[in-house]
Design brief:
- The protein is an alpha/beta fold.
- It has three domains: 210 residues, FAD/NAD(P)-binding domain, CATH 3.50.50; 112 residues, FAD/NAD(P)-binding domain (3-Layer(bba) Sandwich); 113 residues, Enolase-like, domain 1, CATH 3.30.390.
- The protein contains 14 helices and 22 strands.
- The strands form five sheets. Strands 1, 2, 3, 4, 5, 6 and 17 form a seven-stranded mixed β-sheet that branches. A five-stranded parallel β-sheet has the order 8-15-9-10-11.
- The chain is globular.
- The structure holds 1,4-dihydronicotinamide adenine dinucleotide.
- The site of 1,4-dihydronicotinamide adenine dinucleotide has 27 residues, from helix 6, strand 12 and strand 18.
């Protein structure tokens, strides 16, 4: 039995980042992780592998659609899907190995196995009970399936199975037009699958402003994705090689059926707390099955904290990382802080979609009529030079103070250029501050400045 200042349960982005910060702040730290590798869902079966496949399939798309126009002649490459998956696996192992190295460097113990908390101050892994002054639960989330849909990870898959398919499906049906459905749907559409997305709501990506949703959907449709909107999936019937998806359109009573070789269930995720023994412990949960925490990530039990997907808020790796660092500061007797008003969200399709802060719709519902500055990437020379003139930057600004309250970007590098606006929001900047900042030419970031100019006397290139 070993004794620690902190034991963190889960080595995903929340847990491993928290562990490194705890160790840097002088706390004796261990992490319990039952997977064979560190990094959690994000590194092993989520963010990172999907980005590898998005990159590879984007390269193919470029070769098929844009090379000839640039004078790059010849046949487009054929797809060796096995090799593509092994490239993806290589990317995973480089990253998971990197975390193992960081654990050693920071003298963090990796306790291998699945943890239970028998009582505050104790963590049981297998037959061993370890003592900890503080415990941080960072056990992440798991797929939330639908009633009537059984995931076998072969024909009916979650995002995990979609990253390991035996072959490229001819017909892929995606249930849910959220982030996972659209990212992985894009991958397979580019690889040649006929992709149909069935979505319950009338618009894709719930929570985005309507103009962003419309424009994004149109772009994806041009790339070959088909959408059946306003349709609730009722069930999936599958055998070893095929499936039938039954859905009910909101308008009309008759059920409809669509055939698939593979069905991807992308209808959301739920906190993963199984096996931790939280019921017996008397840990307070929210109505939505999350661990209830206060402003310092403390639960109702002394010495037990929780961060990331198991608590309230968006299920995003970087939100978990921020909470991980902040809770480490708290445990080291410092002041940990996360600004929940400035957490960007990115959809890694091509073009990327990135958002931060308030939406126009939210502000209007609260009775504020924000100023909107919009600039289309068609007016951005750099974007046009790389065949990415679709989309726009939208700034959402306070009508009197000119302070930036939110932003949405559809366009090249959106996931990176959004950070200019995140920093601006952290500093309480106005649209005029961005408009008066010199931006290098030619860059995608100029579109952000143009949107800021559009909040004042007008953009130059529109
Ligand atoms: P999501 O919550 O983003 O979207 C699920 C969609 O499924 C919704 O549009 C919903 O209306 C629809 N849906 C639910 N039940 C349905 C039914 N019976 N029939 C038809 N449609 C139905 O969930 P998603 O995409 O599975 O992602 C899960 C979590 O992982 C999210 O919190 C997401 O933010 C996070 N994530 C983030 C990524 C990123 O930041 N790039 C990448 C992947 C996941």
């Amino acid at each position: 039995m070993a004794s620690y200042d902190v034991i963190i349960i889960g080595a995903g982005p929340g847990g491993y980042v928290s562990a490194i910060r705890c160790a840097q702040l002088g706390l004796k730290t261990a992490v319990v992780e039952g997977r064979d590798t560190l990094g959690g869902t994000c590194l092993n079966v989520g963010c990172i592998p999907s980005k590898a496949l998005l990159h590879a399939s984007h390269m193919l798309h470029e070769a098929e659609h844009n090379f000839a126009a640039m004078g790059l002649k010849g046949k487009s490459p054929s797809v060796d899907f096995k090799q593509m998956l092994s490239y993806k696996d290589d990317v995973i192992s480089q990253n998971t190995g990197g975390i193992e190295f960081l654990f050693k460097k920071n003298k963090i113990d990796w306790i291998k196995g699945w943890a239970t908390i028998p009582e505050a101050g104790k963590v049981k892994v297998g037959d061993d009970v370890h003592e900890a002054k503080n415990i941080v639960i960072a056990s992440g989330s798991e797929v939330a399936t639908l009633p009537g849909v059984e995931v076998d990870e072969k024909v009916v898959v979650s995002s995990t199975g979609a990253l390991e398919l035996g072959k490229i499906p001819k017909k892929l049906v995606v249930i849910g037009a959220g982030v996972i459905g659209l990212e992985l749907g894009s991958v397979y559409a580019r690889l040649g699958s006929e992709v149909t997305v069935v979505e319950y709501m009338d618009a894709i990506c719930p929570g985005f402003d309507a103009d962003v949703q419309r424009s994004f959907q149109r772009i994806l449709e041009k790339q070959g994705l088909k959408f059946i909107m306003g349709a609730a999936v009722q069930g999936v019937e599958a055998n070893k090689t095929k499936a039938k998806v039954t859905y009910k359109p909101k308008k009309g009573d008759a059920e409809e059926v669509i055939d698939a070789d593979v069905v991807l269930v992308a209808t959301g995720r739920k906190p993963y707390v199984e096996g931790l023994g939280l019921d017996k412990l008397g840990l307070k949960m929210t109505e939505r099955g999350q661990i209830a925490t206060n402003a310092t990530w403390a639960t109702n039990l002394p010495g037990i904290y929780a961060i990331g997907d198991v608590i309230e808020g968006p299920m995003l790796a970087h939100k978990a990382e921020d909470e991980g660092m902040a809770v480490a500061e708290v445990l080291a007797g410092k002041h940990g802080h996360v600004n929940y008003g400035v957490i960007p969200g990115v959809v890694y399709t091509t073009p990327e979609v990135a958002t931060v802060g308030a939406t126009e719709a939210q502000l209007k519902a609260d009775g504020l009529k924000p100023k909107i500055g919009k600039f289309m990437f068609m007016g951005n020379a750099r974007a046009k030079a790389v065949h990415q003139g679709e989309g726009f930057v939208k700034l959402i600004v306070h009508p009197e103070t000119d302070r930036i309250l939110g932003a949405a970007i559809i366009g090249p590098g959106a996931g990176d250029i959004i950070h200019e606006l995140c920093v601006a929001m952290e500093f309480g900047a106005s649209a005029e501050d961005i408009a008066l900042t010199c931006h290098a030419h030619p860059t995608y970031s100029e579109a952000v400045r143009e949107a800021a100019l559009a909040c004042g006397d007008g953009a130059i290139h529109s």
